[in-house]
TrEMBL record:
Domain spans labelled Flavodoxin-like: 13-161
Pfam families recorded: FMN_red
Residues in the signal sequence: none
PANTHER family assigned: FLAVODOXIN-RELATED PROTEIN WRBA-RELATED, FLAVOPROTEIN-LIKE PROTEIN YCP4-RELATED
Species name: Mycolicibacterium mageritense (Mycobacterium mageritense)
Protein name, UniProt field: FMN reductase
Gene3D superfamilies per UniProt: 3.40.50.360
């Protein structure tokens, strides 16, 4: 079913994440706070405790912001298990034309997080969603920059953050919290703009599926 947006005043956004040790969960809260500040109605959904109500919520929102810890240079097994549970929705186009974005956190400064963000973007594309970039220039990349810059690790595809492996969930870097807040606000804004556009020009009709879902 095409997604045409329902409430122009308050876009609905779900932050959908997996976190094994709590760091990504803290950043999910920051993404949610940014989206809320920008006027969205926000839900936070942990993919390892999904209920039927959560699935229904995801089917109804205007935008999803996916977050996963980086494990072994990619999304966590927990996030991938969630992704694989969406196969029928993918075939049916249940999330088609929703807005999407993503964030990831790792232990190393790089940590191969690009691979994780790429996986999240491909997941969104398989659902025919509209991926939104981070929308920030690179921080901490000049003699006057510092680790306190927004986007301190220089990602464009989404938010890439880093937390020391021996730190607690409350010890995520403040610049990373700010970067994630920015991502949430940006996606709320883009979603609102898209909803307003759709109120005068609805999303395109869905083309016929190339194959029927088998299960
Ligand atoms: C199984 C496993 C694999 C990991 N793989 C990576 C990795 O590829 N790159 C990296 O920088 N950190 C890696 N880490 C460290 C985590 O990304 C880091 O501790 C992160 O903050 C965990 O986020 P979470 O608290 O949301 O689970 C790994 C940790 C675990 C447990």
């Amino acid at each position: 079913m095409p997604h045409n947006g329902t409430d122009i005043a308050a876009p609905t956004v779900a932050v959908v994440y997996h976190s094994g040790f709590g760091h990504t969960a803290t950043l999910a809260d920051a993404v949610a706070a940014g989206a809320r500040d920008a006027g969205a109605e926000v839900s936070i959904v942990a993919v390892d405790t999904l209920t039927e109500d959560d699935w229904n919520l995801l089917d109804g929102v205007d935008a999803m912001i996916f977050g996963s810890a980086t494990y072994m240079g990619n999304v966590s097994a927990g996030f991938q298990a969630f992704a694989e549970q969406t196969g029928r929705r993918c075939m049916n186009g249940a999330w088609r034309d929703k807005v999407a974005g993503g964030f990831t956190n790792s232990g190393a400064k790089s940590g191969d997080k690009f691979a994780t963000l790429s996986s999240l973007a491909v997941f969104a594309a398989q659902h025919h969603m509209h991926w939104v970039s981070l929308g920030l220039g690179a921080g901490w990349n000049s003699s006057t920059g510092s680790e306190n810059d927004l986007n301190r690790l220089g990602f464009w595809l989404g938010a890439g953050t880093q937390t020391d492996v021996d730190a607690g969930p409350a010890d995520v870097h403040p610049a990373d919290v700010a970067t994630c807040r920015h991502l949430g606000a940006r996606i709320a804004l883009v979603t609102r703009q898209l909803n307003i556009g759709r109120s005068v020009s609805p999303a395109a009709p869905v083309p016929a599926a190339s194959s029927a879902p088998t299960r």
